Amino acid sequence: MRHVFSVAIGPVGFRVGSDWRGPVAALERLYASYPKPQDGIADFTVRLFADRPWRRFFRPKVMIGGDFVLPEAAPLSLEHGLLAAEMAMNLQMALGQRRYLLLHASAVERDGKALVMTGLSGAGKSTLAALLMTRGWRLMGDEFALLDPETGLIHAFPRLISLKNEAIAVMEAAATGGTFGPLLAETPKGAIRHLVPDTRSVAAMFEPARPALILFPTFGHEAATREVAPSEVFVRLTQASTNYVALAERGFTALTRLVAGTPARAIDYPDTESAIAQVEALWASL
Amino acid sequence: MGVALDGHLLARALADPASVATLDSAGWQALLTMARAELLSATLAHRLDGIAKPVAAQRFLDDAKASCAQGRLVALWEVEMARRALGDLGVPVVLLKGSAFIAAGLAAGQGRFVGDLDILVPRAELDRVEAALLGAGWEWVKPDPYDDAYYRRWMHELPPLIHRERDRMIDVHHTILPLTARPTPDADALIADSIALPNGLHMLNSDDMICHAAAHLFADGDLSGGMRNLWDIHCLVDDFGIAGLAERARRHGLASAVRRALRLSHALYDTQLPDGWARSGSDDDLYLRRLTARDGWGRQTRPITRLAFYVRSHWLRMPPLMLARHLWTKWRKQAG
Amino acid sequence: MATLYRAASPDSLIVAPVDLLTAIYHRASGQTHLMASPAPEILDALAEAPLDAAALLAKLRADYDLVDADPAVLAARLDELVETGLVERR
Question: Which of B70, B76, B81 sits opposite C85 (nearest CB)?
Fold first, then answer.
């Protein structure tokens, strides 16, 4: 492939081959402070390609390929090439990750302990994680938290933080001095802008943390907190994990131990300041 | 660079594990990506057990083994559930392909990714088998009357069934090639001479397994996944030898397919052949070209060669007039 | 002779209570089941040897003091367990 990019993000190495320079240039700029894959060998391969030769130049459409693919995935326009690369890397993890149990959750760390936030898209877990990062927490990841079945620890997977729609303005204001990607307008999910995790989060990417609190945030309601019963946590986490079944017995023991050993709360929040206050209060009480 | 950057890189590593010592990191990356694309990553992992390699390569291969192990478990469970549904019918149920290899613990099953469950039953018992499966939670995948009628009349299997809870497919064959294809294997002999497994189900005897693999490779497909199918054949020959194979292949009308399969297996994987078996033949180079059409990024290459084999495979499955009518009917349905 | 019900052997199961429910991982199938009483108790009662429905009902009444000791209800639970593969009819 004409243009190649590679990067290590926590315990996972990727290589991205592209028919166009643009996406690779964007990746190089945003992941500049990240290490390269161990031994020069990537765990997953992603390809951004034109399905017909003329599609490299004329109304270019970026098809997503790689080790693991979804058969009927729609191509993206070239100006959204960075998004295509990020989606493709997510797909490799979702379909191919076998070492760690994937939780569809954001995670931040303080004092060696991890706060894991999970919920439906739009619940605000990426934005909350990004905001907590600006308030002194170490960002471990905004899309996947990696649970090690052998140790029960959460491993960091700090990809570019994906901010959508209203969250973009919120973080542009909050993360002064942060490095942002281009504003990608009118993607299938609305407006998207990526934020690079801060220096401290990148530097600490190989440090795992013990999970101390599982949070189910829901945006758009009056502030409230409730306990979540282990059975509900178990069901919601298996539904939120793309590789639970693939991990077989290790997945079961990892998840049952997590659920048995980690307190879980659901919070409703009307705005992000309220959410942060609730988080800090919960954290202090544990 | 002296090393081929097509499927020969993978074939060499499988046939001669020690040869990976000369690979640099780019070579390893290409080898691993290619193996994954050819569904041979776990096979490669087992072949390279104990061979010195970079840490990242070992990690990749360990993950492939873990993936394969879970798939194996799920495939064996499908076998067990089929046994529970069909065990009391008094019908011989013969496991085919990957499911048979893993159920019997064969070398061909080590590192094998197994897809759907394929079984072979006597044609006369199809209705009872179908009823038992429907009663145990399987249902039709495509309730389309044209496809259904075509299937039942001409194909070598029932229309596909999928289990409503487990979401896994079962293919029920009554012979191993479509009735429209030219070689007509002796389905009765396949079943009569099958071998009983401890769980009461059956598998083909070793000569028939090789014949089936060769038939599947050449007479029923366009060679995609061919490197893996040939590795199956290589393992079966290695395990069981080929005394009696020539005569068995002739009985099934598959002599030419089996001879070619063994030649190609020898060319790619150094399969040991006794005297009297040819090691090269006409068009083998073209077949090898098609089989090894994979690059270090995992892409399929050689589009023209691939297209030629694709067209040929359809032509083999159906006589030209039938193919034309089949395609016309399908076109009419899509257009109208 | 009455139908016997045979459960998956205890070594093929990993059982983890999760508050009021029981999570069960079935090694042979790779499936996870989240079950409420009396399903875990039925599996337990069948652990030593296969039983027919009447014997099973008697054992459940004796060992677990079950309120739901109604043969029709038991039959429905057994059907569900057979579908999951955790119990086999012999």
Answer: B81
Q: Give the model's pLDDT for residue B333.
A: 63
A253 interfaces chain C, CB cutoff of 8 Å: yes
Chain C contacts of A243, Cβ < 8 Å? none
For residue A213, which amino acid is it?
Answer: L
> Do residues A36 and A8 touch, judged by C-beta distance below 8 A?
yes
Tell me which architecture the domain covering A101-285 has in CATH: 3-Layer(aba) Sandwich (3.40)
CB spacing of A230 vs C16 below 8 angstroms: no
The Cα–Cα gap between B98 and B32 comes to 22
pLDDT tens per residue, range B33-71: 999 999 999 999 999 999 999 999 999 999 999 999 999
**What length is written for chain C?**
90
Residues of chain B contacting C9 with CB distance shorter than 8 Å? none
In this complex, which of A41, A65, A248 lies closest to B29 when CB atoms are compared? A41
A75-128 per-position pLDDT tens digit: 999 999 999 999 999 999 999 999 999 999 999 999 999 999 998 776 688 999
Which chain A residue shows the shortest CA-CA distance from C21? A231
Which pLDDT value is given to residue A142? 95
Which of these, A164, A128, A158, lies nearest to A143 by C-alpha position?
A: A158
In a domain, B200, yes or no: yes
Domain CATH for B300: 3.30.460.40
Name the residue range of residue B59's domain. Answer: 7-335
Segment A238-244 shows an average pLDDT of: 93
Contact A46, A18 (CB under 8 A): no
pLDDT at B1: 40
* Residue ranges for chain B with pLDDT beneath 50: 1-2, 336
Render the burial of B40-72: b for 16+ CB within 10 Å, e for the rest: bbbbbbbbbeeeebbebbbbbbebbbbbbebbb
User: Which amino acid, A42?
Assistant: A
The per-residue pLDDT for range C10-52, each reduced to its tens digit, is: 999 999 999 889 999 999 999 999 999 889 999 999 999 999 9
Which chain B residues touch C27 with a CB distance below 8 Å? Answer: 73
Q: What is the Cα–Cα distance from B296 to A191, expressed in whole angstroms? A: 35
Pick from C28, C26, C56: which is nearest to B83 by CA?
Answer: C28
Interface predicted TM-score (ipTM) of this complex, two decimals: 0.94
- Chain A positions touching B66 (Cβ under 8 A) are 98-99
Q: Which chains touch C (3 or more CB pairs under 8 A)?
A: A, B
Nearest to A234 among C23, C27, C30 (CB): C23
Q: Is the pTM of this model over 0.95?
A: no
Domain total of chain B: 1
Selected for mutation to probe chain A from C32, C33, C35, C37 (highest A CB count within 10 Å) is C32
Written as six digits, the tokens of B51 are 């061979």
Where do the CATH 3.40.50 domains begin and end in chain A?
101-285
Helix (H) or strand (E) holding C34: strand C31-35
- Chain B residues lying within 8 Å of A102, measured CB to CB: none
